[in-house]
Amino acid sequence: DAGITQSPRHKVTETGTPVTLRCHQTENHRYMYWYRQDPGHGLRLIHYSYGVKDTDKGEVSDGYSVSRSKTEDFLLTLESATSSQTSVYFCAISGPGQDGYTFGSGTRLTVV
Amino acid sequence: DAKTTQPPSMDCAEGRAANLPCNHSTISGNEYVYWYRQIHSQGPQYIIHGLKNNETNEMASLIITEDRKSSTLILPHATLRDTAVYYCIAAGGNRDDKIIFGKGTRLHILP
Q: For residue A56, how many other CB atoms are within 10 A of its CB?
């Protein structure tokens, strides 16, 4: 979607390796979110950020960490990837003058 | 857990109005009703939201009952491109209040 970019779009990694997903926005919005989506579970919130260096946990934060050193970038790190973290990961942003969240196109992560 | 209840699936004929119901009987006074949709493999897309009054935009209309315990999303003239999963969400108006998604309603538009 315009103003929000996720990278990479697809990634295959091995169990036990660290993985970092990037969410980049050009809207200068304060709020950023990471969700994962799995069949049968819908979208679940992992972590979110309400400003630079201000982050908090969501529903399913175990095994994930995040960092936000700049307004435009929100990084999601899997410290040691497991097969249960195979999923589609969506980033979202929210800010003044915007109704609701704007979501990115997603990153499909496969852990083998 | 999601605070809303939606039917898992619905069908609607192309060109007809699609009426998607949502129950939110435990909604708080300061919580809005939000609707998003997700077309296959894409990120969710914001549709509309409201607090008490009915709302309309270029995509849809939102009808909220007077007691705010339920609402209906109306797509006035459904097209095949409206085939998607529709999520009804109750969330506060503050941006600190996070959007928690439920399972949604899978809407099939039939040609």
A: 13
